[in-house]
């Protein structure tokens, strides 16, 4: 793997909860996955209609997919604005994709490999996903220009700027490339925080995490057999165009709107641990977004700056 590709240190063995299963777990999981497959196939069948499908229907369908898998959903925060908008969120699970689309239907940034996934690849392609080749740095300027063009045209584009999934107990840095598209297009950035809890008001759960060498089937089964999972989606205050003068401060300001995560940075010379990137973007000139394995030399974590302070710095720098 290229050292330029974002990655995370999380692995199923080290991070993901397995939990105990009752005698009813298997039949319940089979029923849940059957409903998920039915909803996804219905989405594939209707996807050729494209923009003719009302946005409200798309949001309800996305919520239904998550709910069918056995995860309750709770949304907080204000509705996102209309027009061109860059939606950015932390990345934990394959569930993040329908959850972010439930906030506002958008063209999702996705790695090229997803195009070849059974069912999900076809659904992503017909849904207008913007597929990117993360290992081709030379294609990055053209990719940013293409995203900026979509934003100027009034589309919403959704991205996971960490570039890889994390377990939920920690988060990676937000890489800058996609924020340049928002600056070029002059559109706002809408940060969204996603959390998974063991039950309503309970502790954070890593059961939904899709990390490391975890397979999609294994992750689906783990979520379907779990009980009491809750997804919290917090739509944070929008960052208006002109708030920050460059992509670095804009990425940092968006990242600081997600207060639960801890920021980790890895030595670029260390060997990265593979993570899944359902909808990440290339990061030119950046190290992988993860900390080094235990025992390896690490850099100190970057200091956390309050979001309000960042907003003031951005305004003063403009």
Structure description:
The chain is α/β, with parallel strands linked by helices and 318 residues long. It is 34% helix and 13% strand. A seven-stranded mixed sheet has the order 1-8-7-2-5-3-4, sandwiched between helices. Strands 6-9 form a two-stranded parallel ribbon. It is globular. Residues 261-275, 277-307 and 309-313 have low confidence and may be disordered.
What structural class should be given to the helix and strand makeup?
Answer: alpha/beta
Helix percentage: 25-40%
Average pLDDT number: 79
Major sheet details: 7 strands, mixed
Strand order of the largest sheet: 1-8-7-2-5-3-4
Question: Unreliable stretches, pLDDT < 50, 5 or more residues?
Answer: 261-275, 277-307, 309-313
Q: Kindly estimate the percentage of residues that lie in beta strands according to DSSP.
A: 5-15%
From the spread of the alpha carbons, the general shape counts as globular
Taken in chain order, the helices and strands follow as HHHEEHEHEHEEHEHEHEH
Tell me the Rg in angstroms.
19 Å
Number of strands: 9
Distance between the termini: 38 Å
Count helical runs: 10
